[in-house]
Amino acid sequence: EKNTTTRDDDDDDDDNEEKKRERRQSAAGASTASTSVSRLALDGLARNIIARRMRQMYSHIASGVRVRIVAAFDVFTAIVQRDDDGSLAEETFRQFDWTLQILQKVATPRIDNNSSSRKKKKKNKNEDSDDEEDADDDISNNNNIKDNTNGNANDKRNAHISLFREERAKINQAAKASRKNIEKASNRFAFAQFYLAFLESNYESVVRSAATNRNVMYLFVRNVAKDDSETQCRFLSVLSQSVLNINVSAIQTPLKIKLATFTDVLLEQLATMAALSDGVTNAEKDENKKVSIFFRDTTVAKMAVDLLKEVCVNPRHGICPSQVNAGDLISRLLVKLRPAECDAHLSVLSDACVAHPRLAARYVAQFSSDLQPKNTEKWLSTIRMLGDLIQTSAEYGETTIGDFSGGITNENNKNDRHDGGNDDEDDDDEKIEFSARCWASSALPSSLTKSVFVKSLGHKSIVVRQASLQFLAKCLRATRKRIYLAEKSAIANQIKQRKNISISNSNRNNGAHRGHVLARKREVLRRARGIASADVFPDISVLIQIVMKGGAHAQLTIEKMDTDKKGEVEFDDGDDDEGNDEEETQDEVSEFSRFSKLLALEALAERIALSPSDTVNFVDVAKILPNTPDELFQNTRESIAAVSVARNACTASSAVSKNTLVAVFKCYAFAVMKDVADESNDIRLLSENLKTLFKLNIIESKTLDGRGGSDRSTKRSFEREAETYARSFAKCCCSASTSLNLTSTLADFLADAIVSA
Fold first, then answer.
1. What is the pTM of this model?
2. Cα–Cα dist 313/612, whole Å
């Protein structure tokens, strides 16, 4: 009986479990059915709103009541976001009237005039109270006015950054509250969520329709830099993945859509967002709340910078310069950046110009800021940035060789086929002169003149002088390279044209005309060198004065700037600068002076190399080169720069004097006498440069003239004989290494022999 009772109980438990399982399954099926029914009902409601209730929705949007406007956009956002197959989102975008006049106002952030007026009143009240409290302390504070002026610029900048951070914090806090309670949202926030719902759709057709419609895109994009950080991150993610396809290989957006999406307005807003992290390192980060705000803005700035660099550098997007695109859109963007004030803008500008030197050439040509020397952080940053861009733009000179402005092209020289009168010759000479002047300053901005260079070199602040010397060297290097590439191309074209002239008279006449045009181009470039030396850059004597003064502050003189009189240049003494230098110690001045001399030597070498031949005979190389072994090896970089000056001077001069030969031979003797096997790379480089300079002086002294043979064979024989001279002189110096007087005697003896010969 007990066993039977146990079996009956087990059967009852099994029945109960089966009934419970059946109830659960029926409940799940009922919930699924109810969910599908609810979903279908909501889909029907959404389609009904789109098809029949749009006029009522427009009335809410145009009502001017914030709650009604936010509610209407919230309903539209929910319709777009709940779409499974993309039909609802596509239908909503097509049916919505994007031409409503009220949208311009709704999409604009509200300006809190009351808070700004309260801030102004509070500020004025505080200033009045401060004036009353400090009235008795004016006499004691007069001695500290000069000390306080040094930090005025930094105080203004920090105050501006602090105010900007407060505004950003309020925007992010308001957006956070709006996401928790949509009733607190602003009109702009509700509209931004509505438009972002289209951009974040999973269907390409919806995303492309929302991104390529410029009128719709403009409503959102024109103020996106004033949105909260989360909205900006969502928008930048859409641009990165759905439009530019960065790190997305499965989808490739057509080039036409990319060109339609990235407009001037969008690029300007990206540049504004890229500057959101400006000044974060200078702000206080003690509070966790502030740190989170800074982190969000820094994330937005990094994403914006990455997008700008991708667009400006990568040619596959079709926006930066290429064979089919001139890059006008990027050029307009770069001109609007603030590279001297914002590191993010400087990074974008540098990467774009390095990747495409054409952009650097356009930027330099359109640069119009004042370059008068000032001892301010902004001026120093501008000079450093502009010098790098001028050097980069010289790389583009080879592709613009044919751009001879002012009538030197073939189309404007039809009168060259016949012999014209004197009037035609005068006009042609004027055109050549005009083109030469254009080429002389083609690598520099229009606001950069000779007087600006000279004022900068003679400024009271040694920091400004050093920055000016570096900037001058870069400008000289860029101008010389640009003219050199043009000369090289013109010579190559002239040689090629001579080879292609056929026997027929017509081709011969055409070839003669083209050869005449190329010859005139070479004449333009020859004159451009002279104009650049005389009217664009400081005279060689100015740089020699700086070198002779050892880099110290010198009162410079120039010749024939605007008048025919020679006089001293009046320099700015720095009283109007925003930040004055503190008093410098004697050791600091000495160190700065040595570095200034090095920079002056480098600039002098470039200045001599730019000058036309036979125009630098007055440069005394003997005063520039070191006179003792200690001077030669004490500052190797300075000695290398001095050797470069001597090499360029000997190449450009018509004759080599005895003093120059003696100075060169003595320096070479000092280098030979020193064992450079275990020395640094700079000393080895100095020794090689001195050997090259020695051989150059042997060749330029005309000692080896009179040999027969062709030009190439004569050149090779000259080099071989100069090498023999160098080896023989090195052996003599090594034998007399114990006596510097004997070494000087050998150098003087060899110089006398060469001059006599």
1. 0.78
2. 38
